[in-house]
Write a structure and sequence with these properties.
Blueprint (H helix, E strand, L loop, with lengths): L20 E2 L6 E2 L8 E11 L5 E13 L3 H7 L3 E3 L5 E3 L12 H11 L9 E5 L2 E2 L7 E7 L5 E9 L5 E7 L7 E5 L13 E7 L4 E10 L2 E14 L2 H10 L3 H18 L15 E3 L5 E3 L2
Parallel strand pairs: 5-6, 11-16
Antiparallel strand pairs: 1-2, 3-4, 3-15, 4-7, 6-8, 7-9, 9-10, 10-11, 12-13, 12-17, 13-14, 14-15
């Protein structure tokens, strides 16, 4: 691939850090605690149901932001994290993208190519819940696809439900980097809502802070608001150990919390809908029907 300017953690022309790894694509260097785009984001998730009755849930979370070019190097330098291998924390290719174990970057590049988007070898970052002790559930995975000048070319919202189904919405981004995206709902997510409706995403891409807010509405009005926010932390072994202790068994708590809240919704009178088949196409490219607005 084309070489991008190296992001060195050591002085220009000086020796490399003794714990330094090298990016296999652009020969950039990283060492423990710095020099990487990958990071931890520690924060919270809130859900508010507006109709036909009020319901609220909130829990502390953390996510990994992984630069796909750095994935193996981060795995090599951080003992608690592995790529496609069991560890305390891990990322497995079969959990995302094509979900067949194939490499993530070729998959997302194929989707972008189908949408007429060429990153010219730019960076691709993925924000996700990692596997913890081998278990993972990701309600929402967000892909940030950047051009060579680091501007955002596209965002992919990969939505998962608790029934083993997933669907992705690929949203091309214009030169002015709008952050509000609206499109029709494609995947049946909650059995307490019908299949129809639309989403409105308000996204602030990861910097010192990351946030995404999702409003779900139908012709009846606003039904649900979900928000996720997080503050950036270095992706190091110490950082991972800290969140493992302060947020124990996060992914198991997420799926357990979803089912516990489902019981509470049933007790409040929520009506269960049968689960339909997922969309036949795994990715929807949002074009003229999606509305982009700067925030």
């Amino acid at each position: 691939h084309r070489r991008r300017p190296a992001r060195r953690s050591s002085p220009v022309g000086g020796p490399h850090h003794p714990n330094e790894s090298r990016c296999p694509r652009c020969d950039a260097s990283y060492c423990e605690g710095g020099g990487v785009n990958s990071a931890l984001y520690v924060g919270r998730v809130t859900h508010r149901r507006h109709a036909p009755f009020q319901h609220r849930m909130r829990y502390r979370t953390y996510s990994l932001l992984v630069d796909l070019d750095e994935l193996d190097a981060v795995s090599a330098r951080t003992r608690l994290f592995s790529h496609n291998r069991w560890n305390v924390f891990s990322l497995h290719d079969r959990d995302h993208g094509a979900r067949d174990g194939s490499s993530l970057r070729p998959w997302i590049e194929d989707q972008l190519s189908s949408a007429g988007i060429d990153l010219d070898d730019g960076r691709i970052e993925v924000l996700l819940f990692p596997r913890i002790l081998g278990y993972s559930f990701n309600p929402l995975t967000v892909w940030f696809c950047r051009r060579r000048d680091d501007s955002l070319a596209a965002v992919v919202y990969e939505i998962h439900n608790t029934f083993g189904h997933s669907h992705s919405h690929l949203v091309p981004i214009g030169d002015h980097a709008p952050h509000r995206h609206e499109f029709a709902k494609a995947l049946h997510v909650s059995p307490f809502f019908d299949q129809d409706g639309a989403y409105s995403f308000v996204l602030r891409p990861p910097q010192a802070r990351f946030s995404v807010s999702i409003d779900y509405s139908t012709d009846e009005g606003d039904l649900l608001t979900a928000t996720m926010v997080g503050d950036r932390r270095d992706l190091t072994g110490k950082g991972l150990l800290r969140v493992f202790i302060t947020h124990p068994l996060l992914t198991a708590k997420v799926i357990g919390g979803i089912h516990w809240q489902a019981v509470r919704v049933l007790l409040k009178g929520g009506r269960y809908r049968p689960v339909p088949q997922p969309p036949t196409q795994p990715v929807t490219v949002e074009g003229t029907l999606v509305r982009h607005e700067p925030v």
